[in-house]
C-alpha cells in the first residue's frame, strides 16, 4: 500500500498527556479507536497518497513558509456526526486567526503540486476518539482542562497504521517571523 501523508501540528507532550488523562477519566467505551497521546495533533491539511512522487518537492515548498509562532487554547469537547453516536470525539481549540492563516499558507504552498489534498473546510481539532463502536447513545459529561500551548512548528507526517506512534515525522518546519 502506498504511503499516506498529512501536514499537522503536534500537540506538546504536557498538553497531550492532560487530554489523555481527561479522556481516561470519562471511562469512554463508545469508540473503536482512541488516539494515543504521542499521536495527538491538529491536521492542517490531509494529503493522502503521493501518486506522482512529489512529496519531496512539496516539503521544499513548505520550507519557504514564514509565520510567527503563536499559542492555542483548548476550549471544550465537541463531536463530528450525530451527537448521540458521534464518529469523532475531539478537543476543540478556541478561534485563532494565526492558525487559520497558517493553514491557508500550507494549502497555498501545495497548490502547484498534483497532490490531492482534502478539500473539506478546515475545522481545527484534536481527535480523542474515533469510529463509533455501537451501544447506547453517548450521554456523559466530557470535561477537559482549558490549556494554552505554544505552536512553534508544523510537520509533514507519514501515516503508519498499526504502529505507535502512528504518525511519523518526515519534515518539520520552525515557525519564525518573516526575515
UniProtKB/TrEMBL annotation:
<keyword id="KW-0378">Hydrolase</keyword>
<dbReference type="GO" id="GO:0004113">
    <property type="term" value="F:2',3'-cyclic-nucleotide 3'-phosphodiesterase activity"/>
</dbReference>
<comment type="similarity">
    <text>Belongs to the 2H phosphoesterase superfamily. ThpR family.</text>
</comment>
<dbReference type="InterPro" id="IPR004175">
    <property type="entry name" value="RNA_CPDase"/>
</dbReference>
<dbReference type="InterPro" id="IPR009097">
    <property type="entry name" value="Cyclic_Pdiesterase"/>
</dbReference>
<protein>
    <recommendedName>
        <fullName>RNA 2',3'-cyclic phosphodiesterase</fullName>
        <ecNumber>3.1.4.58</ecNumber>
    </recommendedName>
</protein>
<comment type="function">
    <text>Hydrolyzes RNA 2',3'-cyclic phosphodiester to an RNA 2'-phosphomonoester.</text>
</comment>
<feature type="short sequence motif" description="HXTX 2">
    <location>
        <begin position="125"/>
        <end position="128"/>
    </location>
</feature>
<feature type="active site" description="Proton acceptor">
    <location>
        <position position="125"/>
    </location>
</feature>
<dbReference type="Pfam" id="PF13563">
    <property type="entry name" value="2_5_RNA_ligase2"/>
</dbReference>
<feature type="active site" description="Proton donor">
    <location>
        <position position="41"/>
    </location>
</feature>
<feature type="short sequence motif" description="HXTX 1">
    <location>
        <begin position="41"/>
        <end position="44"/>
    </location>
</feature>
<dbReference type="GO" id="GO:0008664">
    <property type="term" value="F:RNA 2',3'-cyclic 3'-phosphodiesterase activity"/>
</dbReference>
Amino acid at each position: 500500500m502506498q504511503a499516506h501523508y498529512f501536514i499537522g501540528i503536534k500537540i506538546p507532550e504536557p498538553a497531550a498527556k492532560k487530554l489523555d488523562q481527561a479522556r481516561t477519566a470519562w471511562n469512554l467505551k463508545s469508540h473503536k479507536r482512541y488516539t494515543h497521546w504521542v499521536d495527538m495533533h491538529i491536521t492542517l491539511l490531509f494529503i493522502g497518497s503521493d501518486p506522482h512522487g512529489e512529496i519531496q518537492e512539496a516539503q521544499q515548498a513548505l520550507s519557504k513558509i514564514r509565520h510567527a509562532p503563536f499559542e492555542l487554547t483548548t476550549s471544550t469537547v465537541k463531536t463530528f456526526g450525530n451527537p448521540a453516536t458521534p464518529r469523532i470525539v475531539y478537543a476543540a481549540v478556541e478561534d485563532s486567526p494565526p492558525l487559520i492563516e497558517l493553514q491557508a499558507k500550507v494549502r497555498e504552498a501545495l497548490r502547484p503540486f498534483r497532490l490531492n489534498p482534502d478539500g473539506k473546510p478546515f475545522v481545527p481539532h484534536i481527535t480523542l476518539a474515533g469510529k463509533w463502536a455501537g451501544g447506547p447513545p453517548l450521554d456523559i459529561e466530557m470535561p477537559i482542562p482549558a490549556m494554552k500551548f505554544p505552536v512553534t512548528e508544523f510537520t509533514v507526517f507519514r501515516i503508519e497504521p498499526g504502529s505507535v506512534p502512528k504518525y511519523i515525522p518526515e519534515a518539520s518546519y520552525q515557525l519564525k517571523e518573516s526575515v
